[in-house]
């Protein structure tokens, strides 16, 4: 009986961690139909919307992942983060 409170505490902590990282899990499991709304939000803060959308949609179609937010967070999507241009710069916005 002494282990029961610890089990409940462990379950509670596990649940809280699951909620905390749910955005990361959601970013990594897109369907192709989810790309346009995700890229629209991703490119919403840039003044170069057309090229941002073009490359974001291309990257999303290949990787099925768009990082959360309007900038950064690319480590959430390794494929999106590691796809480079011929010059070695990031292909995905």
From TrEMBL:
Signal sequence range: 1-27
Keyword flag Signal: yes
InterPro entries found in the cross-reference section: GASA
Pfam family, one: GASA
Keywords per UniProt: Signal
Keyword Disulfide bond: no
UniProt family annotation: Belongs to the GASA family.
Xref: PANTHER family: EXTENSIN, PROLINE-RICH PROTEIN, GIBBERELLIN-REGULATED PROTEIN 5
Protein name as annotated: Protein RSI-1
Gene source species: Quercus rubra (Northern red oak)
